[in-house]
Amino acid sequence: MTxxxxxxxxIIGAGPAGLATATALSRQLYTTVLFxxxxxxxxxxxxxxxxLGFDHVPPPVFRAKAREDLKARYSETVxxxxxxxxxxxxxxRDGLFKAEDKHGKAWFGRxxxxxxxxxxxxxxxxxxxxxxxxxxxxxxxxxxFEERGAERVGVLAFGLTGSVKMATHIAYMARPLGKKVTIxxxxxxxxxxxxxxxxxxPFTIDTxxxxxxxMAGGGEHSTSVxxxxxxKDGEEGEEVTEGFLAHxxxxxxxxPFVEQLGLxxxxxxxxxxxxxxxxxxxxxxxxxxxxxxxxxxxxxxAASGAxxxxxxxxxxxxxPRVEMDVEAMEKVIG
Length: 334
Prior knowledge:
- InterPro entries: FAD/NAD-bd_sf, FAD/NAD-binding_dom, Ferredoxin-NADP_redctase_2.
- By secondary structure, the protein is α/β, with parallel strands linked by helices.
- The chain has 2 domains: 199 residues, FAD/NAD(P)-binding domain (3-Layer(bba) Sandwich), CATH 3.50.50; 119 residues, FAD/NAD(P)-binding domain.
- It contains 8 helices and 17 strands.
- Helix 1 packs parallel to helix 7.
């Protein structure tokens, strides 16, 4: 029987957070397996921003450079499992973890890092999903600067941006980028009244429901979105075109791991973690990047991965670093 390899850390997800975790752990000679499903939240972004040294650079270039560095300098400690989708995770009574792919192949580790990212849950509006990432931006640090000077900008005040605090926060961020900012409450009259009551309110508020949206065209790199708004009192609906839209929809962590491991989640659906190192409610499991952070961006994801590595090294230093033979492994996994 082949002796199973016991790795120090299993990392599910090879975006900025997972890559940063593996890099930091390699500096202390901890072994990792980096599972890359090749699915990335920013796949529709032509360029990323607010990342030192990689501003206005395509996301695949950033990931490729990080992988190149890992392979060139830390190949003795990092194992790449490219194209592998982990479908099951298990924590055993002795604290070890197992990750399995859909074919039943298993990997074992002393710690488990979830760098899975999240899936955005589109609202029930025709065309929204087609506009997401092209003309709808969730972060105005990441996008929007290139569209500065737009005649009109829209803020969608529902989902995670469906409160006075969040809607106006995003609207104020949009204000330097567009000459007119409209907050769309999608039928929420109460929210519209609260925003209207704010002193020195500089925004236009539209309470009509959005029945559909589509990219307005205007070139390959156009971000303009045309909204179809429901008519009131029998009136015909109106079409309005915005230079871009700002909106944060609800999200859910990728994969079945929250349920499998019994992880606690935050009110917004993210995996609940303890600052600053990202440990979850289950000892030995860490959540880094978008799945465990409210601020979902490349720079914060990479930082969270480095922090998690620093946090998990401390308890691992106290544990014996031994290879387990087949008999010992079978006792652990039962």
